[in-house]
Request: fold
Amino acid sequence: MARPLGAFQSITFAAWRDRLPGQARQSNRYYVTLAELLVRLGSFGLGLTWRVRIDDARLVARFAEIQMASSGGIGTLELLALVAPDLQFVDGEFAGYAGDELRVVLREFDSTSWDLCTADASVVREIRRHYPDAVPTPEDVLEEFPWPTTHRET
Reply:
């Protein structure tokens, strides 16, 4: 059974982060990758099947491979294997489904921010715990999304 459209929440957070004291360093900043976010989803994300859309995927062989592999849906562990440990996209949408039901969307925008859209409040809380700068996704950004986002996270 599909969730009502109003149940979805969306938050946005920075993709580039300052390293915490004690973290291994090559520089003072690091990039939150799709692989990191898939791990942060934990057991919620394990059983999902993903469909991927990457802008200009045809220009980068690995991006095209990932997009093609997901055309019929790809499991979380398979997707993680393709993107780990540090693959960075410029613009991409990663939609996770349980059967035919859309459960979560991760959207990487311009290598500067991530948007998370889900109806599961525990996933929103977990992402906020790791990325405390997360804010409700701006209305003008929500209008661009091809998935249901009629309810904003507060």
Notes: The CA atoms of residues 28 and 136 lie 27 Å apart.
